[in-house]
Design the sequence.
């Protein structure tokens, strides 16, 4: 033992005395993995349990080693690092699990012929029974729902982003923290908590009163989604506009630039990356909303390309109804395949949107020195 | 800010007026929409509140009907926040201060992906995967921690309990709290952090001394937004929870939340039942109002730390 430790010790200068060697985490990790496997072997091995036990052993081992060599302050720092990294790994578990579940169940549905290019028009339980009993291909697709989701979400975004952004501008630039500004801030927070189904009921009742009873169209759903989306856009844009340093505004005013041009040319470009990410989160929040669309747009099995008339399908309501009321109650498997396929398409859609917004945000991001 | 420019052209003045007018109109529109929602809820709820007790579902009046699902809603939301808040703050710190700079943006995107997954997918995942996988853990809890009222057995065989619903809700709330906290952590004045490090603080001490005090109101506001989501979430609970009467045990089937109660019963409801459900929505609305008012009060008390000034 002493012969192997001596050269390491001799290399250490006074500056690095009392520190853990650089390889310490790897040694502890290897020991924790071995010990974890040994413990799990006693109670029955599974990969998930192995990961959890090893992580706990790693944290305990590293922190106590650090406490012995480096003292309590460094040990606390190590403990905090372990907890922070651990919480990130825990947060990844549901993400991986959800995506895995959707991929495994969704790919067979997605590969059915005509899944993306046909609607459910004329697809009845007879076909599903035949698919299960005789091995015929599962027919019927999500074209109508995909079209509906894109139209409803686009219309909701077109309504929400100008209203939300202008409100945020009013709050930060014109409100001066006055009574109206405080009231708007307060009620935007209240609006954030509106349950999605209540927003749907509001939009339905509004259109029943204005257009006529029983009005269920994509536009009604878009209004319902806007009620949910506007406060998210306002909150995130407001936070982002507030970060813009006052020095930038004052510099523009000092050059004689009008306030509205300052806002358009200086304030918004500085905050645009944050605003874009906020809008993306807002779209992500509403694109999967099921309850308000069920109440406001009804449910259709055929293609409807007009948001202002007729019932309209959407991907979330398609998933919900295919799970809850399968096309063929005797053989729910084809419906469940279609539901998971639609879920996969919905997730891909949102991921692409997210990625696009992130690219835009990166292109327009101001340099922060970080 | 209040100084007016010395020279001014007609076009510039008109632009200013139009722009500030549009901003003001947008703000007022929000107030009008919210007023419309509240008005609609109250008007539609009045029949249920004034109807004879025997005609309300359950036959014992509206308040006997509503309080168990109010408690159920609060239980689910509290479970979600208790699980999500510490993890979310940890994840936000990891991305803002611990992860290698080059990886941070990509890791942040992965967490945002959690927010992108629709609630109906979480509901399907919770019902088809999580409930099944977690029910052995419930059996263990019932056997070993059963003396606690919240873990009283026998555990649900399907795993479709309020605790499962709370866990699914916590996953849905996590990215909201994380992404907002992360933005606030990144705004911490660089000089505060560097000053702490220069005085010999470890990374954790630097975070404790400079980042967390600066970010506290931001974290509270983030948790509040998460609570709003957890209270109002409909589909995940409707699909995951096998609902029933109010029970203290979190690992038996039972309990119900307001939003799921409305979602499951509204399509077939008619007459007084519709009013009852809308009144339940009004109650949910009032709870959110109370939560927000408390949170606002906390935030205004700590305003001097915020990034606004």
Sequence:
């Amino acid at each position: 033992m002493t012969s192997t430790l001596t050269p390491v010790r001799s290399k250490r200068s006074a500056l690095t005395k009392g520190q853990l060697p650089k390889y310490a985490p790897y040694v502890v990790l290897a020991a924790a993995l071995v010990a974890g496997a040994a413990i799990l072997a006693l109670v029955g091995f599974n990969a998930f349990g192995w990961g959890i036990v090893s992580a706990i052993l790693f944290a305990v081992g590293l922190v106590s080693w650090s406490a012995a060599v480096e003292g309590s302050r460094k040990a606390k720092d190590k403990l905090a690092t372990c907890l922070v990294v651990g919480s990130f790994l825990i947060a990844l578990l549901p993400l991986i699990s959800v995506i895995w579940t959707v991929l495994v169940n969704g790919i067979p549905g997605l590969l059915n012929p005509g899944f993306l290019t046909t609607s459910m028009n004329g697809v009845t339980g007879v076909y599903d029974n035949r698919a299960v009993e005789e091995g015929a291909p599962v027919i019927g697709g999500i074209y109508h729902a995909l079209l509906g989701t894109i139209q409803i979400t686009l219309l909701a975004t077109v309504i929400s982003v100008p209203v939300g952004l202008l409100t945020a501008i009013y709050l930060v630039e014109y409100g001066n923290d006055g009574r109206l500004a405080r009231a708007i801030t307060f009620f935007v927070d209240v609006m954030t908590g509106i349950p999605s189904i209540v927003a749907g009921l509001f939009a339905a009742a509004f259109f029943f009163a204005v257009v006529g009873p029983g009005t269920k169209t994509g536009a009604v759903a878009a209004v319902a989604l806007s009620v949910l989306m506007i406060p998210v856009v306002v909150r995130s844009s407001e936070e982002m506009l507030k970060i813009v340093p006052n020095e930038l505004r004052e510099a523009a005013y000092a050059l004689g630039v009008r306030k509205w041009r300052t806002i358009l040319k200086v304030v918004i470009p500085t905050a645009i990356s944050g605003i874009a990410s906020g809008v993306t989160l807002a779209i992500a929040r509403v694109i999967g909303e099921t309850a308000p669309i069920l109440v406001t747009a009804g449910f259709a099995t055929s293609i409807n390309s007009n948001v202002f008339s007729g019932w309209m399908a959407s991907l979330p309501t398609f998933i919900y109804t295919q799970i809850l009321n399968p096309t063929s109650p005797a053989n729910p498997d084809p419906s469940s395949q279609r539901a998971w396929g639609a879920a996969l398409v919905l997730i891909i859609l949102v991921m692409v949107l997210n990625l696009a917004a992130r690219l835009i945000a990166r292109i327009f991001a101001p340099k922060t020195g970080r | 800010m209040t100084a007016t420019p010395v020279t001014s052209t007609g076009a510039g003045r008109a632009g200013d007026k139009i722009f500030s007018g549009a901003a003001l109109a947008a703000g007022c529109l929000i107030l009008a929409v919210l007023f419309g929602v509240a008005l609609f809820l109250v008007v539609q709820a009045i029949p249920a509140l004034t109807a004879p007790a025997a005609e309300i579902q359950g036959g014992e009046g509206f308040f006997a009907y509503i309080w168990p699902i109010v408690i159920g809603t609060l239980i689910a939301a509290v479970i979600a926040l208790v699980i999500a808040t510490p993890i979310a703050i940890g994840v936000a710190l990891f991305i803002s201060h611990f992860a290698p700079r080059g990886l941070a943006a990509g890791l942040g995107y992965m967490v945002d992906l959690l927010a992108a997954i629709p609630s109906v997918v979480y509901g399907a995942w919770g019902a088809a995967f999580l409930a099944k996988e977690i029910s052995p853990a419930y059996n263990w809890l019932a056997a070993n921690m059963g003396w606690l009222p919240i873990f009283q057995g026998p555990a649900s065989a399907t795993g479709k309990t309020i605790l499962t619903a709370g866990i699914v809700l916590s996953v849905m709330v996590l990215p909201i709290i994380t992404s907002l906290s992360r933005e606030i952590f990144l705004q911490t004045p660089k000089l505060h952090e560097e000053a702490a490090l220069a005085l010999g603080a470890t990374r954790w001490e630097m975070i404790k001394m400079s980042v967390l005090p600066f970010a506290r109101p931001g974290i509270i506001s983030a948790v509040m937004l998460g609570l709003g989501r957890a209270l109002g979430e409909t589909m995940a609970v409707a699909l995951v929870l096998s609902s029933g009467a109010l029970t203290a045990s979190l690992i038996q089937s039972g309990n119900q939340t307001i939003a799921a109660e409305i979602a499951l019963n509204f399509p077939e409801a008619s007459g007084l039942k519709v009013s009852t459900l809308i009144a339940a929505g009004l109650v949910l609305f009032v709870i959110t109002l109370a939560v927000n008012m408390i949170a606002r009060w906390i935030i205004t008390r700590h305003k001097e730390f915020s990034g606004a000034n």
Q: What stands out?
A: The two ends of chain B are 13 Å apart (CA to CA).
